[in-house]
Amino acid sequence: MAANQPRSFMASDDTTTTNYEFDDRGEAMRQMNSLLRGEISAAETYRMAIEKISDGQVSENVHMLEQMQQEHGRAAQELRERIRSLGGEPSESSGAWGAWAQTVQGTMNLFGDAAALKSLKEGEEHGLKDYEQAVEDSDPLTASLIKSELIPNQHRHIELLDQLIDAAGQA
Q1: d(Cα 98, Cα 3) in Å, to the nearest integer?
Q2: Does residue 18 register a pLDDT over 70?
Q3: Which domains does the chain show, CATH number per domain?
């Protein structure tokens, strides 16, 4: 390898490589902060949905939403720690993602719980796509976190929201 070429890391499973390079730390921090802002926004959005839905819904549904909110909070904390470990400064707010939370709140107020649950699902699907794209451009430890924890959480949240949407449609 020539001295001026960046070195690539191997991904954690030893069968694939990531596109992450030492020279790309700034871009990696930007990307991880974008993922972090998405998680902060998701936690905010679930909090608003829980407040709205808990007014008259079955506590089991609220409990599932609370679990998803907590998982987004934990994901945000893990991303913060990962950013700090790489020498970066983590975002503290949801930034533009906060607009998504406001949109979901407005949807709940106008169209009810089923529409709000569909909006939450859309957010989860968007987050899943972001993680799937990010995994290839992440350092090995971040890629491992995304593949082993964050992507599976997104899939599970989508499945649970589908169940809640179906139940809301039958109510």
Answers
A1: 43
A2: no
A3: 24-170 (1.20.1260.10)
